[in-house]
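S1.2 Input.
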Amino acid sequence: MAKELKIAPSLLSADFAHLGEEIEKINRSDADWLHLDVMDGVFVPNISFGFPVLEAAARISTKPLDIHFMIVEPEKFIPRVKKLGDVMMNVHYETCSHLHRVVQEIKDAGMKAGVTLNPSTPVSMLEDIIEDVDMVLLMSVNPGFGGQKFIPHTLQKIAVLRELIARTNSHALIEIDGGVNLQTAPLLAEAGADILVAGSAVFQSPDVTETIHKLKSLQQSR
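S1.3 Output.
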């Protein structure tokens, strides 16, 4: 059955000299969430931004926040993330030694819990946690930098994840992050993705609102 895609523009690709204006563009658009990538320079080879930017975004954004923590020990920040309001807190499978505990702590704090997989991490690693998470984020590039080329194997990975979700009666959504644009988005929609994170394709386009509208108009196929 066809279903409308959700779009989560990634603030990492915005013009940080005019951050408030960039977020207001998203507020006026058809976007569903605002995606924020938090990088620590340890788990990934880059540093992005921390709580001053997250708190500013929470004040300005009228969209729920989809926060992707590419950091070690993300569980330390659960109480502070909770204060940001309507949040999906997304942690990496690769950084959480006790993933079930972290997911439960996020949910006990009243937030939605997402788990992210790097390109080389198989979907089978989620077998014992899939029923507890609200979303699975599949990285379609290696995490740490924006503007990378899409990894085609992601399409097969979506199919495997879709089968796992169906088999376990999980309600988890499938989100894709990396190399999403007007060329790759239709392929991801056809494969069964629920949410697309788009950074450069949105913020570097001549018309942010129109680009988001075009992405939203794609129909997901299951």
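S1.4 Remarks. DSSP finds eight helices and ten strands in the chain.
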